[in-house]
TrEMBL record:
Start and end residues of each Cell wall hydrolase SleB domain: 154-262
Transmembrane parts of this sequence: 38-56
Protein name: Cell wall hydrolase
Biased composition (Low complexity): 351-379
Keyword Signal in annotation: no
Keywords, in A-Z order: Hydrolase, Membrane, Transmembrane, Transmembrane helix
Annotated stretches, region: Disordered: 66-86, 327-399
GO molecular function (one): hydrolase activity
Length: 399
């Protein structure tokens, strides 16, 4: 078998015709001449793609909203369509901000909104200094009221989540930067308050002491560094038996008990946007007088059985002490200088006593003390008349 080696000189030769002419012309262009044209075409293509994407996104959102409206009962919509930025008035739980659905229909509608699969960023701890006890007690009372009236029947986890929403709002630039200011925002209106209990007459009912104490414990922990990490940077929540219009335009985070928690979309829902500091001075809320006692009127209950009866009557009249006036001291009189000191006489030597009866010297000592006689001197006589030897002789005592 033989192979055909007669191959054409250009096995991949370009086809003839207009395409060949275009390719030949294109290959003759330099890169410098080609780059501006390509950039212009590429920019136009990006603009067209972005415009088409925006139109399709808005159209799909309208179709989805129309489908949900057709599936449920009639809805009395008093809000703007779901396009465009949100306004502060839209983030309320007032009657005109929710769909007119019954509890079961609202739960079905809320379940149709998916939870976000993005990671939840926990908030930073907040610690309010108790140095100023008046401001600290106001913050604790306002937080306690929010927990009691908004989540009084919830678990401690659900109550802590509500407290975390208050703290997140206090740090966000869209809300007041005090605890009481956040909770009672919009309280002067009959509808449209941020927390419904502040304007629907719920505070006219006296709180249950046990439930109030439980809510106060959660509020105190929240103001001393406790963080509900499961709700992250949530700034909104509502019960599952209502369906607010703003729920679809926020990021759905978590459901705890009967409450569903949301955060802002975009940069406003990120942790770096929650940077505001507490002002340190809480406003005075007149409505809080319905549920709390002013701090200056508190009285400590005392058991009379534990107080001993006084045994001694103590006079508590203040003593008046007259100032003591001291008489001036007399000036000291000048004194004469002391006389000059005289030298003491020298001591007198002690007298020596002599024995009137001297001791009789011995003969030996007398002989030693007597001068030696010369040769040929006459002998001397003793007391008894006897002579002694001359020179060189030794005298002998006579008894």
């Amino acid at each position: 078998m033989s192979l055909d080696t007669n191959l054409p000189d250009e096995p991949f030769a370009r086809p003839s015709g207009p395409l060949t002419a275009f390719l030949n012309r294109l290959s003759g262009l330099r890169y410098q001449d080609l780059a501006p044209s390509l950039l212009a075409w590429f920019g136009c293509a990006l603009i067209v793609v972005a415009a088409v994407t925006l139109v399709l996104t808005q159209r799909l959102a309208q179709i989805q909203q129309q489908t949900r409206s057709d599936a449920g009962p009639a809805v009395h919509n008093t809000r703007a369509p779901l396009s465009g930025p949100l306004t502060p008035d839209e983030f309320t739980l007032a009657p005109d901000a929710v769909r007119q659905l019954d509890a079961l229909s609202s739960q079905i509608f809320n379940d149709s909104i998916p939870f976000s699969d993005l990671p939840i960023q926990p908030a930073r701890p907040f610690i309010m200094s108790p140095t100023d006890i008046v401001q600290y007690s106001r913050a604790v009372d306002c937080m306690t009221a929010a927990i009691y009236y908004e989540a009084g029947n919830e678990t401690p986890q659900g109550q802590a989540a509500v407290a975390q929403v208050v703290l997140n709002r206090m740090r966000h630039p869209a809300y007041p930067n005090t605890i009481c200011g956040v909770i009672f925002q919009g309280q002067e209106r009959s509808t449209g308050c941020q927390f419904s209990f502040t304007c629907d007459g719920a505070m006219n009912r006296p709180p249950n002491p046990e439930s109030w104490a439980r809510a106060k414990a959660v509020a105190t922990a929240a103001l001393n560094g406790s963080v509900a990490a499961e709700v992250g940077m949530a700034t909104h929540y509502h019960a599952d038996y209502v369906s607010p219009y703003w729920a679809e335009r926020l990021v759905k985070l978590r459901k705890i008990g009967v409450h569903i928690f949301y955060r802002w979309t975009g940069a406003w829902g990120q942790r770096f946007s929650f940077t505001r500091q507490h002002t340190g001075e809480e406003p005075v809320i007149a409505k809080m007088a319905l549920v709390t006692t002013p701090l200056d009127a508190l009285e400590v209950p005392v058991d009379p059985n534990l107080v001993p009866e006084p045994q001694i009557e103590v006079d508590t009249t203040p003593l008046i002490v007259a100032p003591v006036q001291h008489a001036p001291l007399p000036e000291p009189e000048p004194q004469a200088p002391p006389p000059p000191t005289q030298a003491a006489p020298p001591p007198t030597p002690a007298p020596t006593t002599t024995n009137p009866w001297p001791r009789r010297p011995s003969n030996a000592s007398v002989a030693a003390a007597s001068p030696s006689r010369a040769a040929g001197s006459p002998p001397t006589k003793t007391r008894r008349g006897r002579a002694t030897a001359g020179q060189g002789s030794v005298r002998r005592a006579v008894v």
